[in-house]
């Protein structure tokens, strides 16, 4: 990953890395949708149960990139730095923080599921996700 790329591009490259590794090393085809997040949820849970805590930062960055890109492609929004953290901004008042959520599931397990986080987005942000689906604005 090139360090001279803008952060949002580096995040998207990390997301593509997850898709590529899943396909080539795990024989799993994942997309940027709820089915992909369902797979991600299981993968993170397995890492929580058997993974090395020393690997969590790298996993959080890579897997959080993929989760965030699933959010962008499913519900709209853009990658942005919000309050000194990177997340998916829907508008000036609403954002989701996929890196934080991945980190929480890696640390705490299924009680902090990324799948429940993903499926809650249209419930928590109905107006911004509706605009994104209709192409009526967004971030």
Task: Give an overview in words.
With 139 residues, the chain is mainly alpha-helical. The protein has helices spanning 7-26, 34-50, 56-75, 98-108, 114-124, 126-134, and strands at 78-82, 85-89, 95-96. It has a single domain (7-134), classed as Four Helix Bundle (Hemerythrin (Met), subunit A) (Up-down Bundle), CATH 1.20.120. It has six helices and three strands, in the order H-H-H-E-E-E-H-H-H. It has a three-stranded antiparallel sheet with strand order 1-2-3, covered by helices on one side. Strand 1 and strand 2 (85-89) form a beta hairpin. Helix 3 (56-75) packs across helix 4 (98-108) and helix 5 packs across helix 6. The chain is globular and about 40 Å long. The two termini are 26 Å apart. The mean pLDDT is 90.
Count of helical stretches: 6
Number of domains: 1
Distance between the termini: 26 Å
CATH class: Mainly Alpha
- CATH fold name: Four Helix Bundle (Hemerythrin (Met), subunit A)
Strand adjacency order, main sheet: 1-2-3
Strand % is 5-15%
Q: Any idea what the shape is?
A: globular
Radius of gyration, in Å, reads 14 Å
The sequence of SSEs as H and E is HHHEEEHHH
Number of DSSP strand runs? 3
Structural class: mainly alpha
Looking at the overall shape, the CATH architecture is: Up-down Bundle
């Amino acid at each position: 990953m090139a360090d001279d790329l803008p952060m949002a591009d580096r995040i998207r490259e990390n997301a593509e890395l997850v898709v590529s590794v899943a396909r080539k090393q795990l024989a799993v085809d994942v997309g940027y949708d709820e089915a992909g997040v369902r797979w991600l949820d299981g993968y993170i849970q397995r890492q929580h149960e058997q993974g090395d805590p020393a690997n969590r930062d790298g996993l959080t960055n890579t897997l959080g990139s993929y989760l965030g890109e699933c959010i962008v492609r499913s519900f709209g929004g853009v990658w942005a730095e919000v309050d000194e953290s990177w997340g998916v901004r829907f508008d000036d008042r609403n954002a989701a923080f996929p890196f934080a959520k991945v980190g929480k599931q890696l640390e705490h397990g299924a009680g902090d599921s990324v799948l429940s986080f993903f499926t809650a987005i249209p419930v928590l942000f109905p107006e911004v996700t509706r605009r994104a689906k209709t192409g009526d604005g967004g971030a």
